[in-house]
Amino acid sequence: MGAPDRVNDTVGQRASPRPTPGTGAHFPHARPRCATAGEPADGPGPGAAALSRLRAPRLASGRARALGLASPGTTAAQRLRRVDRWLLAVHAAALTQPAAVPLVVDLGYGCSPVTTVELFTRLRALRPGARVVGLEQDPARVAAAGTASRDGLAFACGGFELAGLRPNVARAMNVLRQYDEPAAARAWSAMCAALGPGGLLVEGSCDDRGRLAAWVVLDASGPRSLVLATHPSSLRRPAALADVLPRALAERNVPGQPVHALLTAFDDAWARAASSSSWPSASGGARQRFVSACAALDWPQSGPARHHYGELCVPWASVAPT
Question: How does DSSP assign 232-275, residue by residue?
Fold first, then answer.
């Protein structure tokens, strides 16, 4: 009996993530949390109602209790550079036009705050005075990150409720890998509900070095687009991006599903670009091959074209699971 014909570029396929021992793949029914101001760490707190409804999470009145599990924790410097550069280029308006100082939340920064600090540095270059808050479930991680705090950059305990901050933008990379698909969908709903007016959520995954990445862009109405991003010189073929698909698509890369059709079509366009005169191997190299493949791809595309940066953006409707 053969395994499902997944499009990928590695031996085997992406395995289902292992849930944290003792918690299962869904939201936990009980989880240590950071106390709110003036509240004992183990007290009921104003978020108790939210905790009792974690299977259909919604924000409690006042300061909501953190929803979700602690992030896996692994990270590295420059791992999220692609999503940061895309965010600041494509959605600069969301970060520069508001009358109030924009707020960006980085959810699940892991054992080190390095990628949150990098996001802050890049954002401040675009919008001086902008604020970034890194959120984690584990109080020890929050305490350790405190040494990186500075004016405009802070760290706090929080989960999918985004600590009630109502940000302009929330970034949640490599956070939902440990959840199953239904739980990830509930996390999307909770995070989108916690955004500020006109806010955006960027949720996705990347490899350990940040050379392959994929993320979904969402707003209060739900998912809007999927972005596939790569370092073209490191790309063997576009199907390799299957390994970093967001949780909503990770298990849908099988024949008959739109995302499988996209990766198959992208592979075909990549192969054609290799033999095309529009890809001069001496001068254009892998980047020009990526540009040519995106131009030849028979698939709806959205947003400003950033093919030369190794990015392909498609409407969510064109890849949504069926």
Answer: GGG-S-GGGGGGG--HHHHT--STTSHHHHHHHHHHHHHHHHHH
* 68: its two tokens: 């979700």
φ, ψ at 6 (rounded to 5°): -80, 145
- Can you tell me the distance from the alpha carbon of 147 to that of 121, in angstroms, rounded to the nearest whole number? 16
* Rounded (10°) angle between helices 114-126 and 81-90: 20
CA distances (Å), origin 231, targets 61, 82, 255: 44, 9, 27
Q: What is the pTM of this model?
A: 0.78
**Same domain for 137 and 66:** yes
Measured distance CA(224)–CA(316) in Å, rounded: 5
- Eight-state DSSP code of residue 302: -
Same domain, 240 and 210: no
CB crowding 189-206: b at 16 or more within 10 Å, else e: bbbbebbbeebbbbbbbb
Containing structural domain, residue 310: 232-318
With the C-alpha atoms ordered 142, 113, 161, 53, is the resulting torsion angle positive or negative? negative
| Residues 209, 244 contacting (CB under 8 angstroms) | no
Q: What separation in angstroms does the CA of 132 have from each of 149, 177, 296?
A: 10, 23, 39
Task: Please calculate the CA angle 114-138-85 and round it to the nearest 5 degrees.
Answer: 30
Q: Measured between alpha carbons, how far is 288 from 311 in angstroms, rounded to an integer?
A: 12
Q: Could you report the average pLDDT of every consecutive run of 10 residues in the chain (322 residues)?
A: 46 37 31 34 33 32 50 74 96 80 95 96 95 96 96 97 96 94 96 96 95 97 97 94 97 97 97 71 75 96 94 98 96
Cβ atoms within 10 Å, residue 100: 8
Which pLDDT score, from 0 to 100, does residue 58 have?
35
Tell me how many degrees the CA angle 243-249-251 measures, rounded to the nearest 5: 75
| Boundary residue ending a domain (195, 220, 245) | 220
Residue 133 near residue 105 (C-beta atoms within 8 A): yes
Is residue 207 located within the same domain as residue 281? Answer: no
